[in-house]
Amino acid sequence: MARQQNPIDRFYSVIPAGGIGSRLWPLSRADAPKFLHDLTGSGQTLLRDTWDRLVPLSGEQRIMVVTGRAHRAAVETQLPSLTDPNVVLESEPRDSTAAIGLAAAILERREPGVIIGSFAADHVIKNQRLFGSAVREAVAAADAGFITTIGIRPTEPAIGFGYIRSAGTLDIAGAPSALSVTEFVEKPDLATAESYVESGNYLWNASMFISRADRLLEEIGRSEPELLAGLLELAEAWDDPAKRGPAVDRIWPDLKKIAIDYAVAEPAAAQGKLAVIPGYFDWDDVGDFASLAKLNSGGRKSDLAILGENARVLSDASSGIVVSQSGRVISLIGVKDIVVVDTPDALLVTTSENAQRVKAVVDALKLTGSTDVL
Fold first, then answer.
1. Is the pTM of this model over 0.85?
2. Residues 6+ positions from 225 with CB-CB distance below 8 Å
3. Are the C-beta atoms of 164 and 207 separated by less than 8 Å?
4. For 354-366, how does the pLDDT look when each residue is reduced to its tens digit (9 = 90+)?
5. Which of helix, strand or coil describes residue 152?
6. Maximum distance among all alpha carbons in the chain?
7. Across all residues in the chain, what is the average pLDDT?
8. Which residues contact 370 (CB under 8 A, 6 or more apart)?
9. Ranges under pLDDT 70 in the chain
10. Alpha-carbon Rg for the chain in angstroms
11. Residue 306 phi/psi, 5° resolution?
């Protein structure tokens, strides 16, 4: 278990634990989303890994988790040190601006001047020392008034990530690595990604945002004033048990669905108010089965990664990934970069090249009403 080690002054960690990870269907489901799985062989879930990574930076009493009502029991089982005031339950998904913005509004009311850092519950990060160093610099930049993100130095021209275009160095005390950000770029095609990596001016967008809570709310209000009004009204009622439930039922369903990248980061970048700290640690958002295969095969494409406690897999000259939850024997002969996910009620077979298209299957199942397997 991670221990508190010189926690950062005024800092509060926020873990948005939402979404089902639809590109990892049928492994990830609505009732067992991606963050509640052990996808790395560490012996614990991605959520628990995230918690352990943040405890040395903020302390166990200063980590807030924003999750769906349906996942409360599972989250609290995974995180026994999580205190009740630090559990924020969403009645339904409303994307990242609502989740992170509500956490910011609640914490700012409780502790004016607090600095928050938002870190996804389902990412894989290695090298705690480098991660902690980047977060400490990001907090210094946030304290200076910037909306700050941590961008990952690209190791390859990946097309599954968004990119951050950085510019000149910012002169911020305590944040010598801080760079100004000129724009956020959506997932590019391969040729564009190759040019980004070659230029040295682009970082992967890891969706880590660090800011003074009041500054974050200010930016939300600038681009989405109605959303901010709803969040502030919710925060005002939040710590009164008699008022919270009715306020959530009345306000939450009408909040605009928008990612924090669009509501906060992009407008802040356009105004010169966004800073980025380059991260040199290993990071993966485990966004699809291709990245999961790479993560569990040491990056060697010739290997077959096998996940599942009782997996029974026979392989001859095959590579890719097999995730087995059914207990049946799976035999692969002469297939390359294959993805097989075998669960008791659903089977997925695709290739690493097409792994990003799994989300379309989930969308199709929703349209046909086959929600029993989602």
1. yes
2. none
3. no
4. 998 999 999 999 8
5. strand
6. 62
7. 92
8. none
9. 1-5, 298-302
10. 21
11. -125, 125
